[in-house]
Specification:
- The structure holds 2 protein chains of 2 kinds.
- Chain A is an all-alpha fold.
- Chain A is built from 16 helices and 2 strands.
- Among the domains of chain A are: 7-36; 38-89, no CATH class; 91-121, no CATH class.
- Chain A has helices spanning 7-36, 40-64, 66-86, 94-103, 107-124, 136-139, 174-208, 239-252, 278-281, 309-316, 322-337, 361-367, 393-396, 410-418, 428-434, 452-456, and strands spanning 342-343, 368-369.
- Chain A has a two-stranded antiparallel sheet.
- Mean pLDDT of chain A is 73; it is low at 130-141, 199-237, 252-269 and 463-483.
- Chain B is α+β, with helices and mostly antiparallel strands.
- Chain B contains 6 helices and 29 strands.
- A 5-stranded antiparallel sheet of chain B has the order 14-15-16-17-29. Chain B has a 4-stranded antiparallel sheet with strand order 1-28-27-26, with no helix packed on it. In chain B, strands 2-3-4-5 form a 4-stranded antiparallel sheet, with no helix packed on it.
- In chain B, helix 2 packs across helix 3.
- Classes of the chains: A mainly alpha, B alpha+beta.
- At the A-B interface, helix 14 and helix 15 of A face helix 2 and helix 3 of B.
- Chain B: WD repeats lie at residues 62-104, 278-309, 321-362.
- Chain B: Residues 413-425 have a biased composition (Basic residues).
Chain lengths: 483, 445
């Protein structure tokens, strides 16, 4: 039952409701209008404002309502995870591909693509701590101790990782390296003790509130005193892992005695990686086996040069047994050519045949056809040569198949090809004579037809057309082939 | 202490001036330069390919005629002058080096059927459909002068061909009969007839200058001697010859172009059988002209191509065609052996290079030697399949390509049928006729 009210209250209530409904409709209409807005500039401005507001709210939340802040952080982490899994903003979609085609010519297309990549970068950056200004120094990369980059030396299993990572490529002497190592170790030990105290504080805070990183707008950064917007430090600074490292370093420190005295005088071992000895790599005592080496020439140790050509080659191919491999190769080729025994047996034909049944041994013996041995290969007398008997199809493309028309024998044709015409094989004068064209004409002169005087120079040819007037026959005394 | 040193005389290895080339001591020992045949083969292959790469024969088209170009005449003393006559009676004088028309003369009403330049080069003759022979001056008329022929001869019948003697002031025309004219007379000094009432062309032999040949409409070629009263002999073929051309270097050979798509080279002395049958065109051959060296000739055909044949080969070595060039009516090989001129149905005269990939102009000695070497290599290795394949490949317009295939199929079918008929009939009843003999019907003396 409604509580009894007077008219006024009802009216007031109705007005309120009306107002509320009106407001609601205005709000909805506004939202509908705003949703329809497609203007890029408007959205850009709007997004900027939203981001600013978000940052402000976030900072307040951090101070006042840590739970909500945590939620926001979780949301960010979720977004990051999603981005990393789906790789949506990596310029790989249809839109990005179409933009890529235009990017060569269009500035705006290029910018759009870059913006997408930046979005990706934003989403995937890891949230890291930066709470107090005091801790800034410890967390800036320059002040990181050197051994951060060293691998965890917890186990002895990987002897290759025992030594220090090479810093200077110009380092050659073993002893100096040794000294360096030991010096650094002592340094790092000292550093660790200093840092520990500072880092522990931060550790606590990090444990309480997981790493925070506000989303940074690509263009502007609103730097607040309390919250530091950190970007791109994820590679170098991995705080949690960093903690682990520190712990490990502390534990391993006493174990770092086995920096061996390197054999300094042996120059051949210069090339080996530093700090590895045979003893460490072998897990158990192995029996030394004598391996017969292929007879090679005595490696002459030149005191002048250590890098002679022959010495190098010998060293490089010391393990290869070239001769036996060659022999194997030749034998393989010979065997491939040798036709094997052909088995011509057919099941059935005088005995039972069927699935799973083999013909009898006597029958098989009878039908094994031994083919004739192949003709002797051309390289039989030559032990160090393999002459391939196969027909090279790529050559036959270029070879003449049939004897061309004017020639009557193969030798004739080949003799025309044998002698070269070029300057490499002949003297200049010879080349000029050989390559002279059959007909040489002068540039710009009219070539007159043959005159009778020219024809008659050679007196052997008789003019077949000495026709006297009124004669009806042509003199056919001689058939001279002028053709 | 004795120290062994190298001592060389700089005179042996240093060049004398900086304008000389470096002295490169060469050792021609063959063991130092192995694989001669292989290396030269590769060079020949490359040369063939380059030859095709640089094969751009078309030079220019001379535009100006208002009707199809019917005949052309080479100037006997000037390489850069060309005369052309068109189907509307216009004669144009061209300067080939500037590629422009010097003069236009309205010579005849109707076709200009024949044109020839006199051996001295100062005047030229034209014959046309209006039954006249006109002689014109070669020089341009002075200011204000109208162009008038030096001499006009009116005839009773249409003249269809014109030829001039190589050395004397005598010319010949053909129409209903073959007439020999003296330049000073206005009536022919001699007329030849042999039962035919229509001759298509007449040509003087450039070497044996008293001899003439003409093509008649009864599918024959008739030989005359100017000094005789009657024709010498004639050969009747299966189809009509349009025109012919004498070889300027061989006294006895002429090549006639025929309606059956072939050209026939005859030895004047043995007309019973052509020396060579040149097969490659896919439509009637309309004109032929020999190269001044006598080694090749060019033929123009009703299929819209020009082909260059070696004088002793049955197939062409080169084909020129353009989309814009329609039926080629007349063709000439320039007197310096380098250019080919073609006049066609669509009122253009085209200038082509005779050897499509040669470089025009004066070549430096090295260029020339290199070109000679390449040419020689191509010739040496021309029998090799890869080189032959590249060297003989020419692009043809589709119509011509398909037509050629069709003709080949027809020819093969005919040959097969003949073979079958011969194998299934009494031996000896079907005689074996060579391709050459097939086209000659008879020789009449």
């Amino acid at each position: 039952m409604w509580p009894l009210r007077n008219l006024l209250e009802v009216k007031i209530r109705r007005a309120e409701l009306q107002k509320a409904r009106a407001l609601q409709t205005y709000y909805e209409a506004k939202a509908r209008r705003e949703r329809k807005i497609k203007s890029k500039k408007y959205h850009r401005v709007l997004n900027k404002a939203k981001r600013k507001e978000f940052l402000k709210r976030f900072e307040e939340m951090v101070k006042n309502d840590p739970a909500a802040a945590l939620e926001e952080i979780n949301k960010m982490e979720l977004a990051r995870m999603q981005e990393r899994m789906s790789l949506k903003h990596q310029n790989s979609g249809k839109w990005a591909k179409s933009k890529a085609i235009m990017a060569k010519y269009d500035e705006s297309a290029r910018k759009a693509m870059q913006q997408q990549l930046e979005v990706n970068k934003d989403l995937t950056q890891k949230l890291s701590i930066a709470l107090n200004d005091d801790n800034e120094e410890t967390e800036t990369p320059e002040n990181l101790p050197d051994f951060v980059n060293e691998a965890p030396l917890g186990t002895d299993s990987n002897p290759w990782m025992k030594g220090k990572l090479s810093e200077e490529p110009a380092e050659t002497k073993g002893e100096t390296h040794n000294l360096n190592l030991t010096a650094e170790l002592t340094e790092t030990a000292a550093n660790v003790e200093e840092e520990e105290s500072d880092v522990e504080e931060t550790e606590e805070e990090s444990l309480q509130m997981s790493e925070v990183c506000a989303k940074a707008a690509p263009v502007e950064e609103s730097a607040d005193a309390s919250l530091q917007l950190v970007e791109g430090q994820t590679d170098q600074m991995q705080p949690l892992e960093f903690m682990e490292l520190l712990n490990q370093v502390e534990s391993v420190q006493p174990d770092q005695t086995p920096v061996e005295p390197r054999p300094s005088s042996d120059q051949a071992q210069k090339k080996q990686p530093k700090g590895i000895t045979l003893k460490d790599t072998l897990t158990k005592d192995a029996n030394p086996i004598l391996v017969p080496l292929a007879p090679t020439a005595v490696a002459a140790e030149d005191s002048d040069e250590t890098l002679t050509q022959t010495g190098l080659i010998q060293e490089a191919f010391a393990g290869d047994d070239v001769i036996s491999e060659f022999m194997k190769d030749k034998k393989n080729q010979e065997d491939a050519d040798k036709p094997s025994v052909v088995d011509m047996t057919l099941p059935g034909w005088g005995e039972w045949g069927g699935a799973g049944l083999k013909p009898s041994r006597s029958k098989r013996r009878r039908f094994r056809v031994k083919t004739a041995p192949p003709p002797p290969r051309k390289d039989e007398k030559l032990p160090g040569v393999i002459l391939s008997e196969k027909r090279n199809s790529s050559l036959s493309l270029h070879q003449v198949n049939t004897l061309p028309f004017p020639f009557t024998s193969h030798t004739q044709f080949e003799s025309t090809l044998r002698s070269p015409l070029g300057r490499t094989w002949n003297t200049e004068r010879a080349v000029k004579k050989l390559t002279k064209p059959k007909v040489i004409t002068q540039l710009g002169t009219i070539i007159e037809p043959m005159t009778r005087e020219e024809l008659m120079k050679d007196k052997k040819t008789i003019n077949l057309l000495t026709i006297t007037p009124h004669s009806k026959h042509l003199n056919k005394k001689k058939k001279s082939q002028v053709f | 202490m004795k120290v062994k040193v190298l001592s060389r005389n700089p005179d042996d290895y240093v060049r004398e001036t900086k304008l000389d080339i470096q002295r490169v001591p060469r050792n021609y020992d063959p063991t130092l330069h192995p694989f001669e045949v292989c290396r030269e083969y590769t060079r020949a292959l490359n040369a063939t390919k380059l030859d095709r790469v640089f094969a751009k024969p078309f030079l220019t088209a001379l535009d100006g005629h208002r009707d199809g170009v019917n005949c052309m005449a080479k100037h006997t003393t000037s390489l850069s002058t060309l005369l052309s006559g068109s189907c509307d009676g216009e004669v144009k004088v061209w300067n080939l080096s500037k590629r422009e028309c010097l003069r236009t003369i309205q010579a005849h009403e109707g076709f200009v059927r024949g044109m020839v330049v006199r051996f001295c080069g100062t005047s030229f003759f034209t014959v046309g459909d209006d039954k006249t022979i006109k002689q014109w001056k070669m020089e341009a008329p002075g200011y204000g002068e109208a162009v008038e022929p030096l001499n006009t001869i009116l005839g009773k019948t249409v003249y269809t061909g014109l030829a001039h003697h190589q050395k004397e002031g005598v010319f010949a025309t053909c129409g209903q009969q073959v007439d020999i004219w003296d330049e000073q007379r206005s009536s022919p000094i001699r007329s030849f007839t042999w039962g035919v009432d229509s001759f298509s062309s007449v040509h003087f032999n450039p070497v044996e200058t008293e001899l003439l040949a003409s093509c008649a409409s009864d599918r024959s070629i008739i030989l005359y001697d100017m000094r005789e009263a009657a024709p010498l002999k004639k050969v009747i073929m299966t189809m009509r010859s349009n025109t012919l051309c004498w070889n300027p270097m061989e006294a006895y050979y002429f090549t006639s172009c025929n309606e059956d798509y072939n050209l026939y080279t005859y030895d004047m002395r043995y007309l019973n059988k052509p020396v060579i049958v040149h097969v490659d065109h896919v439509s009637a051959v309309l004109d032929v002209d020999y190269s001044p060296t006598g080694k090749e000739f060019v033929s123009a055909s009703f299929d819209k191509t020009i082909r260059i044949f070696p004088k002793d080969a049955g197939h062409s070595r080169e084909v020129y065609h353009t989309k814009r060039m329609q039926h080629v009516i007349c063709v000439k090989w320039s007197s310096d052996n380098r250019y080919i001129l073609s006049g066609s149905d669509e009122m253009n005269i085209r200038l082509w290079k005779a050897s499509a990939s040669e470089k025009l102009g004066v070549l430096a000695p090295r260029e020339k030697n290199a070109a000679n070497y390449r040419a020689k290599l191509r010739e040496k290795f021309k029998h090799f399949p890869q080189i032959r394949r590249i060297a003989q490949h020419r692009h043809l317009p589709k119509a011509i390509y398909y037509q050629a295939k069709e003709l080949k199929a027809m020819k093969d079918a005919r040959r097969r049928k003949e073979k079958n008929v011969r194998s299934h009939s009494k031996p000896g009843s079907v005689p074996v006729l060579s391709e050459k003999e097939k086209h000659v019907v008879t020789v009449v003396k």
